[in-house]
Input
Amino acid sequence: MDQILHIFKKDIRRHWPEILLSLALLALYTNRALHPWTNLLDSYPLSRSFYFFLVTGEYIAPVLVIFWLFLVIRVVQGESLVGDRQWWTTKPYVWWQLLLAKLLFVVVFICVPLFHVQLFLLHYFKFPILRNLLPLFWMQLSLFLILICFCVLLASLTKNLVQVLLVVGVAALVAIAAALWNRETYSHSSPMEATPPFVDHLGDLLIYGGLASAVTWQFARRRRWITVLASIVLIGFVAAISTAFTSSKVAERRYTFVDRSAAPLNISVRPIEISNANKDYSSDPSPEVQLTIPVTVSGVPAGSVIQLNAVNIHAESPEKSTWSRDWLYESQDFWPEDQEKTLAYSVDRKEYQKIRDTPLQLRVDLAISEYQLVDAHTLPIASQRFSDHALGECRISSLDNSRLHCLYPTGIPDHVIRFDPQKSGCFDDASEERGQADTISYAWKSGDERGFPDPELSPISDFDPWFQPVSLTSSQNETTKRRSVRLCPGTLLTLSRPVLRRKLHIRLDPFNARLEDLAVAPLRFSFR
Amino acid sequence: MPSAIRTDKLTKRYRRVTALDRVDLDVTEGSVYALVGQNGAGKTTAIKLLLNLISGSAGHAEILGVPSTHLRGKSYTEIGYVSENQEIPEWMKVEYLLDYLREFYPTWDPALERSLIKQFELPLDRKIKALSRGMKMKLALASALAFHPRLIILDEPFGGLDPLVREQLIEGLLERATESTIFISSHDLAEIESFASHVGYLESGKLLFSEDMNSLSVRFREVEIIRHSDSPLPTALPDTWLQTKSSGAVVRFVDSRFDEQRATAEIARVFGPVRDTQFRPLTLRSIFLAMARKSEEA
Output
């Protein structure tokens, strides 16, 4: 223990300018976090404080995190674990006390000040502190494991900042090359794939356990290349098991196949219009062609919402040859008021070119999640800030008055907000034809698959519930007068909490069409 | 006498290069052992293996009875190490470095520390990065001596230092020679000769010999013979004769296993009767030059 404190004191003596700078940056960050409502338009007209805000406000969080990483690297490399010329290696340092001294420094000068700022922010925004202590602990742990531990490992495997920058640079180049290769090789659409939970948990355990073990081993033995090799082998192993166990079958098994009569909604394909346009995309650079399938929707029970998660299309030609791709992610919400929707799917461009004008019988499968809306209550919008136990502290967004801007402690709450503009009386007649239609709108966010918390700094989550109108039939859309809608004081919102009831796999009635009748002309961008 | 350092076929290979080749060392406690050899002979590699700074490829080493691979943490409370290559924390001031180190050593002697500061004229309020190379070596030596180590290991401590600083370092070292074992590597033979009790010669990673200085100086002699004629040298000469050269009737060589009776008999056998024979003792430097040239010729 004496040695831990002795090394710790030495590190304070050495790094006091960096510690002061870190605390100053944290103070700036805190100042920024105290004004979450501030945005550029609020600061208009431009003033000196606006410039100060622009310089410090937007970039302060990344600057703070980067400076912390720099500080951690400097502190760990104070007793470099790489090479055989370091003065300290022939002194009676006890490796685990050295490690603990470094961690103590991180805790005292990064974690503890941040924790105090987090408590202060909770107090300032009048959120309960005790109830949020556990989530705060998880946020700190997440920051520690994901950022600090990784940084300590990087610092323990490099001799100086130049080597760190080289490693980061090489890693960035590899990531960019992989992203470019991925873009060239794979399609833009996302196949619905999943990994069994035990593989996810095992992967997490191996990565975090491996990270901690690598740091410990490097401090204990100072064998850089063994540590690097072991880390690469571990990452490779986790990637291999993750790849081996990830499949669309695993994802598909999560959705129970039900007959359409047992489905919580009626959905059927609308008549497909024969297209006479030239839809030969053989010279198009895009690797995929997007198809759209118009559907009618009804029967979604009141107090429910159905979320479309993925679509799969199977095609059969008159010659009985078949074509199918796989499940592709597609996100849409079906509300009780919805009437018409359009499903989207992508096919490989070369495949499309082969069969685009062949009459096909198409079979569409959908993966859907059914949510029950519970704890419904009404919320009148106040002229300034207003609060709600389910939604947090909110106000009408100053950038877009069809949105709310809300604050909530330690994460975004699951919520569904229903808004009926007809009852609000807040139409903006001056801006007809713009904005959303004056139909019932919903804003919602579900968090049924929450993983490890993100390594965030502020305990105050900042989110904008965004209202989207339900889709009525084309004829109704045409006859309904479209007027911009704005939220205004006195507007009554209905809030509820979505609870996942079940995940289902349903199949629509087969229909006949050619792919080119469904194809959408690709978007073309040009720069002039 | 127990051994302070003992190695058994200690080997270090870097891919195809063998930096240290099956070295057997035995340094008895209380001795001043000088490991000498040319640059690149493997002296620093040997020391790094002994101190567990690098891992060996084969063989075994023990320091103060502890396997060198187990040396870590508290083991270093009995070992003082000074090297020209060590990276001392240059941001510290001299006084703070000594203050900082004091806490690590239960046997740290503040009185000895003060005496070393005075002897080496260390400027306490100066930052280490502002010190000259000689001052840094003196500081390193002071910090390695102030805790009464049982073993002091010095790797090329005198390289590039002016004579006065060398003298001060050697003086400081010799004053502690009675209570510690000193293991010093150097290619600066003149300084070693004055105080080493034992010497080992490393050549291309191999330890060619390891013995005490007295027997070494007795074993090597420069021999000068004046023959009756200036006939060419015979082709078959004894293996123990090094650097044999002739100039007219005069023949000179270094006998590496000198014994007067045996040497006289061998000279008679090789040259027959000679006019005069002289045996002169050699300096350590001359002995190593002879050994190095023999090795180069081989």
Notes: The radius of gyration of chain A is 28 Å. Residues 276 and 517 of chain A are 8 Å apart (CA to CA). Residues 2-33 of chain A form the longest helix (32 residues).
